[in-house]
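Take a specimen:
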Amino acid sequence: MTKLSVNINKVATLRNARGGNNPDVEKVALDCEQFGAEGITVHPRPDERHIRYADVYALRPVLKTEFNIEGYPSKEFIDLVLRVKPTQVTLVPDAPDQITSNCGWDTKTHQAFLTELMDTFGEAGIRTSIFVGTDLELIEYVAKTGADRVELYTEPYASLYPKNPEAAVAPFIEAAERVHKLGMGLNAGHDLSLVNLKYFHDNIPWLDEVSIGHALICDALYLGLKKTIEEYKNCLR
């Protein structure tokens, strides 16, 4: 069964727009768990424009499901992860000023850097995942770093899906097969939605987890959070 991890960054964005604590990020995370999500994802950035470091510390002791912290491995981020010790850390190569992640790691160029981080997090008992595209050589280099999992960057799939679903998913099937052959776990995320998630899931048999935030929170404005999580989980059955 593929797990659904809800990225709650957009909830924090809404809260930060007015100050105060409405919506309550911690309560939303706990409600997501109660409504069936198997994990919570956060992506703290240096400017704390959505999830704040304080949120990460507050969430850790109250969450009952898997906690996934994703982000660029700056010194501050590494220190945060080692203190919090989430279930999983997902390393993403985004610059501090990016609106959202828009590419995977060049794992060949950064192999030594990533390998050192895999050792550091692994020794702390934290499952590791590296955000990467579908380039098979770069997936091979993920394995060389010692990462536990790959998270496939799915924006290219989501963009092409409305025009040609088969062509959109084809490179991801090939990438997933390579990940599976190399003995790593498989996650996926970025622009997955109720429109394209089921088709992706049905064609990727080794999918351990999807991390979904923006589309899920947008859908919740119309369907409500409980119903939305139920609909996403239906796509993963």
